Amino acid sequence: MTTQTAGPEKAVTRPGDKIFAGAATGSGIFILAILAGVAAFLLWQAWPALVADPAALPGGNGLWAYVAPLLFGTVISATLALAIATPLAIGIALFISHYAPRRLAQTLGYLVDLLAAVPSLVYGLWGLAVIAPASVAISQWLNTYLGFLPFFAGPPSATGRTMLVIGIVLAVMILPIMTAVNREVFLQTPRLHEEAALALGATRWEMIQMSVIPFGKSGVISGAMLGLGRALGETMAIAIILSVSNVITFNLIGSANPATIAGNIALQFPESSGLAVNALVASGLVLFALTLAVNMVARWIVSRRSEFSGAN
């Protein structure tokens, strides 16, 4: 008498699973199609400026001479905002996740997240009416004592509409997303790692240095990259505050400041026509490529972090 062994049972496929899988796949393809469509549209509209006579473009010196100061202003303003916001975001996230009582931490978390709902127009008006006048005395002090550095060479602006003010305003604008990412990463630190550090006699700050920050390092970097991508595309706040010139300068407190790509498009597009419009779209294509690259790097860092587990 032989005994037959039952083979492995086939997984039951439900109609809902097929519908969900199809919807998820279709959504991913749809997003890629939209992204490709935006890139194709920008390239199509920018092509006349890419092949046009340099003398016919704004400024008369070619497309790169037109875009380069805008790209420089975009990068330096976003980098300055990132340098200001990163330590603040880490400190706020650590306070909410490891120092503040639970109720206070929840309230602070809601308030920080609420900053993301404030329109950029409001930030621009706040920067113009409050931060810019208050920065005049600070700019004069920086020029007096740190004027040997190219960042504070001066002469200081009398109105305060400078790249330094833009960096401060953008730092406040990107603070919510960076703090949210850092907070969630710090909260995911394995509890056993924290308890082991405390059991060995470490203080709370030493425990954070040995366990929390190493675990969340890639999350901090990815949050910074996401904040950088947000700062690169900011428009209205920069258009309201900044007094721009077609220059490339590292001076953060002077009255001559490079414009940003997004701010320049917002200011110039309504009155432009012909090749000027194509040149603006070409600068938008450069911004699109830069922002896409920043977000791709951020996603790559996030995917690397997903390979790490608390048991490693």
UniProtKB/TrEMBL annotation:
InterPro entries: MetI-like, MetI-like_sf, Phosphate_PstC, Phosphate_Transport_Permease. GO terms for cellular component: plasma membrane. PROSITE patterns: ABC_TM1. Keywords: Cell membrane, Membrane, Phosphate transport, Transmembrane, Transmembrane helix, Transport. GO terms for molecular function: phosphate transmembrane transporter activity. Residues 71-298 form the ABC transmembrane type-1 domain. The chain crosses the membrane at residues 20-43, 63-96, 108-138, 158-181, 235-255, 275-298. Gene3D superfamilies: MetI-like (1.10.3720.10). It is a multi-pass membrane protein. One of its GO terms (biological process) is phosphate ion transport. SUPFAM superfamilies: MetI-like. It comes from the Bacteria. Part of the binding-protein-dependent transport system for phosphate; probably responsible for the translocation of the substrate across the membrane. Belongs to the binding-protein-dependent transport system permease family. CysTW subfamily. This is Phosphate transport system permease protein.
